[in-house]
Specification:
Length: 193
């Protein structure tokens, strides 16, 4: 049988730590995502939720169980989020830390976007390869096979595998030069080495 919030609130009001833990387990995730919507940084959202539950324990004797616990939790969360935002705006060190985290996230997002562009471009380049070059490239570069293993799988010589790889790399580099801007092409060519 599930214990209601009212029962948990009444027990917590009397100092029952187990009831407090159950409330924490029940609402931590919801409150975390609520705070994250405003703060955009997991570390700060987690700090806020930590403070929320500390505050809840501090005011437990003032709770009115008949009103439920959810309203208290969201009100405390909102207040803690606003308090932290105000603190960020006034403390230079914290502000620079937040700016650093945001810049990191932007750089990471940009890198992911560039990686997706690279993957699409590489996919297009591979699709343009002659069938045997494509097989060799996929075995050696995508699956990590050695030239000997690829030769054995395809029933061709190691020398032929090497020639197909040279042709594939030449064609892929040419495709990159034709289909990507110059800086991006140079980066992609370096990645393929």
């Amino acid at each position: 049988m599930t214990v209601t919030d009212i029962e948990l609130c009444e027990r917590m009001k009397r100092g029952d730590i187990d009831a407090y833990r159950q409330i924490y387990d029940r609402y931590h995730s919801q409150l975390y995502y609520y705070a994250l919507r405003f703060l955009k940084m997991p570390e700060l959202a987690e700090d806020v939720i930590h403070d929320v539950f500390l505050k809840l324990w501090e005011i437990r004797e003032q709770l009115k169980p008949e009103f439920g616990i959810v309203g208290y939790l969201y009100k405390i969360s909102r207040n803690q989020v606003f308090k932290l935002i105000k603190k960020i705006s006034t403390e230079a060190e914290l502000r620079s830390k937040v700016i650093g985290i945001i810049e990191e996230q932007c750089i990471e997002a940009e890198a992911n976007l560039q990686w997706n562009e690279y993957a699409q471009l590489l996919g297009g380049a591979i699709d343009q390869l002659p069938p045997q070059c494509k097989k060799v490239f996929n075995l050696c570069r995508q699956e990590g096979k050695t030239y000997d293993e690829a030769a054995q799988i395809l029933g061709i010589s190691k020398h032929t595998v090497k020639e197909h790889m040279m042709t594939a790399m030449k064609n892929i580099k040419k495709y990159f030069r034709q289909n990507a801007d110059i800086v991006f092409s140079l980066l992609l060519i370096e990645l393929l080495k």
